[in-house]
Amino acid sequence: MKNTIQQAAQNKPAAVAGRSVNQILNGILDGENMRRRFDELLGKRAPQFISSLITLVNATPELQQAVYESPATVIQAALKAATYDLPIDQSLGYAYIVPFKNTIKQPDGSFTKRMDASFIIGWKGMNQLAMRTGAYKTINVLDVREGELKKYNRLTEEITLEFVEDEDERESLPVVGYVGYFKLINGTEKTIYMSRKQVEAHEKKNRKGQYMGKG
After folding, report:
1. If phi over 0 gives left and psi between -120 and 50 gives alpha, with beta otherwise, what is residue 129?
2. Dihedrals phi, psi of 109, to nearest 5 degrees
3. How many CB atoms are located within 10 Å of the residue 91 CB?
4. How many CB atoms lie within 10 A of CB 158?
């Protein structure tokens, strides 16, 4: 498998010349080693997963560009999702294959831009992996609406919330923060609250460093 991926990356110009995105993907995925690897990871679900990958790429112009410029990164991201047995349908929120515009240093010292793909696990995926360990009794995350947070102690992580019971009324209120909680089978528990401003600042900081690529 490793040799197949490396060969696809090294032979990129010849591999993509005059070929469609589907032809490139199918050419890599139909290789004996690659097919065996996905079968080992997913069993009977492998064909469905590969179909999801092709559908995702066809629906995302940036991923199509990544297939032309760096097909190995697309396959590697898919393999990571398969390793964790997480679906890559973006609407499900378990795992994502995300395109990044990266700066690549060439052998002659010059720099070029290249669209790569990376595996990003969603919060539902992290929840799923945690529950599979068998160590968690409860794990959850919720949005907090205006007026629901009554008290939060950052040191002790004690929190007092009064949720609006009427769902229609609650949906009309702005989100002011997010609260996460887990409790292990052994009784250990933890709560964390972040304001919406804190979450957005964290997302902005990491998106600038990752999604935009270096350079």
Report:
1. alpha
2. 95, -10
3. 6
4. 10
